[in-house]
Amino acid sequence: NFSGYTDTNGDPFRGAWSVDPDYNFDQVLTTLRVDADLGFADLTSVTGYINFSRDLGPDTDASPFRLVDFRTEDDVNQISQEIRLSGSTPLLDWQAGVFYAVDNVEATYAGSFIDLLNTTTLTVADQSSTSQAIFGNAEWQLGDSVSLITGLRYTNEVREAENFTQDNVSELGG
Fold first, then answer.
1. Whole-angstrom distance, CA of residue 42 vs CA of residue 76
2. What is the pLDDT along the chain (174 residues), one digit of tens a residue?
3. Tens digit of each residue's pLDDT (9 = 90 or more) over 106-153
4. What is the chain written as a DSSP string?
5. 56 closest CA partner among 12, 79, 24
6. pTM for this one?
7. Cβ distance 54 to 24 under 8 Å?
8. How many Cβ atoms sit within 10 Å of the Cβ of residue 31?
9. Distance CA 143, CA 138 (A)
10. Cα R_g (the chain), whole angstroms
C-alpha cells in the first residue's frame, strides 16, 4: 500500500492486520397476511416486522497500520400494519385502507485513523419515524374498453433524529 507495507506470506486470508476483521449479523424478517371475505367486501391485513443487528469491523487497508480502521454497529427495528377493504360492482372496483409503521435505527461508527491523520472519530445516530396513512382508490368502468382511475392518500410522518460526530486527536506525535 502507499505506506510501504507489503504482505509477503502469499496467503490472502492471513496478514499482519491492525484489527481482526469480522462481520456478524442477526436478523428476523416476518410478514403475516390475513384475507377474509366479508360478503360486501374483502378484508386484507398485512403485518410486517424487521429486527436487524449488525457488528462490522474490517481492516480496510489490509495492513498492520491503523490508516482507515473502523467498527460499525447497527440496530434496526420496524413494525408495520396495513388494513384494506376492497370490493367490486359492475361499474366500480374500489379499495380503501389505513397504514401505520414505526421505524427505529441506532448506529455507531468508530473510526481509527491514528497512523494516517493522528485521530479517531465517533459517530452516533439515533433515528426514529412514525408514519400513518389513509388511502382509497377506485376504477370506474366508463365503457367496454375505457376506465377512469381515481385515488387519494393522506400520510402523516414524524421523524426524529439525534446524531453527532466527534473527532478526537487521540495520540500526540513524538
1. 33
2. 566 777 777 777 777 777 777 788 999 999 999 999 999 999 999 999 999 999 988 777 777 777 778 888 999 999 999 999 999 999 999 999 999 999 999 999 988 877 777 888 889 999 999 999 999 999 999 998 999 999 999 999 999 999 998 888 755 554
3. 999 988 877 777 888 889 999 999 999 999 999 999 998 999 999 999
4. -TTS----S--TT----SS--EEEEEEEEEEEEEEEE-SSSEEEEEEEEEEEEEEEE-BTT-SSS-SSEEEEEEEEEEEEEEEEEEEE-SSEEEEEEEEEEEEEEEEEEEEE-HHHHS-EEEEEEEEEEEEEEEEEEEEEE-SSS-EEEEEEEEEEEEEEEEEEEEEE--S---
5. 24
6. 0.75
7. yes
8. 10
9. 15
10. 26
Question: Which residue's entry shows cell 424478517?
Answer: 29
Judging by DSSP bridges, how do beta strands 120-141 and 22-37 pair with one another?
unpaired
100, amino acid identity:
Y
The CA-atom distances, in angstroms, between 78 and each of 48, 62, 106, 107 are 8, 35, 12, 15
Q: Which of 147, 44, 36 is nearest to 95 (CA)?
A: 44
